[in-house]
């Protein structure tokens, strides 16, 4: 039977009026919100009429639904449906402002300029000025209700709603979900996973409702059956796995969902001896598990544990489903008994429900599906739609699989070497390229293989990196350094720590086409063919760790070491007191996490981020923290990377004086030391530089102290380009060779621009440079803060800025005022600057300029950047890079920028 999905709510409101939705707000397990199906129907009808009155009769209008509370999402989903519009469930916005702008700009085009429904407490998530047309639902409350028609419509196969894909490998796609598809999907689920609503049961969801599994698998299926549905926040469940079991017990949950990683957590908790005698899980019928492969041993273990609490032995249901199939459509109803009998390591995902067919084609075993449950197009994306279907109409899932004689499906991998790590997908080829581009010493070029795999004893998949070493088999230091460099590269690319293994060339044979076979190497690894190499590698790494490890000398060092072990998930006694934390894989996110943990443990109100960056070893940081109250002598040098055999790269700060902008760049440069110059005046009591001559002399002295001999490589970002030019002249005048001078998007003549920047403009530039607000918003408040005193202007900016970003930077009003005055002082020093003299050579990296200085990139290049030729004796090389002036080193552009920079350094013989 095909029905319009409004039939689901109509039926539930009519036949099961007193059942409904119980939604628990975040961190509030005692005060759930309850709405019966009858109340939900009434709310949706009334809201639908309000929406029609407010938005008009645009039947093809798409409404993006953006709420964080489950109940809000459900109420407004049905309100939009009842209004006759097409709902699209919004995914969480990227936290980084530039990424958020890019995401919303893409949605504006993809969804034909949609209306976005949200609430006032979430408006701060939207960049200013608004990219989308945003409607706060509170503004509808006073609107008049007319007699516009709303409510159930006639059955139709037309578009019911849009679900957004994650966009982890590119921009998000919108999957068209039709009424016919939902009807077929729910019919198939009800057939495969029957329940008896007369038993007073419920369904439970704890995944965001932008996921098709929570929306169709749980919410709409519960409506069809007419039972209660319980919604909890994912943060609460993940942080407290027992809440999952307690809720099943309390609300008599028969059907819910749990991915493999969470099943592992349940095993851990239940085996830890936590009290569980109060639990009665006899109500439980199905825990559907998907998203990643299920380990049979885990299924066996959790099934036995749940069975002792009253659940049936086959409550765990491994499944296959996609957004394109309305979530689960193939279920294994005989787990774990069937998989144990077949001696499977990975659980089968079972057999098709009515409404879907499957087949496996080609030598690789490509899984293809068809039937009324399967979608038929991506919205506004004909190209991807065409590429996703075979000529005879079967959808190509991208998975490889086998179907056994019983018609049961087992997945074997992903086509195109797609790795899924912690729910995020990465192309193995792209990761291999990234590692190759890092030119890591110790790796034979062209002999790197990446894939994801479940290693013995592990419960989730991990990235594996196999490489051919160039060092001697017994060179334990080279082995350790190579592994550390690979780990660092993978962490930068994926955020996950890899399993790294060097192998002899005989194990890395190439095909006749010259290709290393990741699949073959993975199979050999699984079969234990590399066990001897694995044991030798582990022993060698351990030997070097033991060699460099020294015990903590005091309680502060011990506390920092233990917190670092926790953050990096490292075994005890693997962290040396003098080892650089960044070499161990400390990312910017992990750095902030470590900062907070140390502050809490050692009871520091605030540890400046620069303190941790300038003291990147356990011992150095412990010493720095003990001397917190002792005035420190100014040192402009911040070490971003201490390792590498090539000539160091010196990076000079932009006009804001700080070097945080170089953190992302430095992570990619592992073959040479990277130092950054930080301006004077950030710390209380420090004076600002008086003029350019003093600044240049200070930096020149610091560089010579750290690197007495050339050749030198200097680069500056924006304002720092001018300082790099001046320092290079000073070095050359002393007889030193400066082989590289990099100017990041700055012309030689800057005094006119410097004169445009008053104190207020410096504050606003600093604000969006630090990402505490967008550039557009900073300019929109200029007139409001210009008349204010400096403290008043600072207070206003603090009030309207991104609170989370302020906390991340440990930025308060006092620090922001000091920072703005420092930046203003630096800009003022250059108001009368005219370049003189020359350097031997220069590399200019240019991108889209500020609108106030040039109309476009070509004018910027020809009229403003070409004049550098007047101040260079040999040659100037120009490098076109992506982004705009303030985003050229941002995360979305940094990979391309670093590749261009490193090639330029090599071209200069460095």
UniProtKB/TrEMBL annotation:
Q: What is this protein called?
A: Putative non-ribosomal peptide synthase-like protein
Q: In its keyword annotation, does this UniProt entry include Manganese?
A: no
Keywords (A to Z) from UniProt: Phosphopantetheine, Phosphoprotein
What start and end residues bound the annotated signal peptide? Answer: none
**One BP annotation, GO:** fatty acid biosynthetic process
Pinpoint the Carrier domain residues: 551-629
InterPro entries according to UniProt: AB_hydrolase_fold, ACP-like_sf, AMP-bd_C_sf, AMP-binding_CS, AMP-dep_synth/lig_dom, ANL_N_sf, PKS_PP-bd, PP-bd_ACP
Q: Which domain of life is it from?
A: Eukaryota
Kindly give the Pfam families that the UniProt entry links to this protein. Answer: AMP-binding, PP-binding, Thioesterase
Decide whether keyword Phosphoprotein is in the record.
yes
One GO MF term attached to the UniProt entry: very long-chain fatty acid-CoA ligase activity
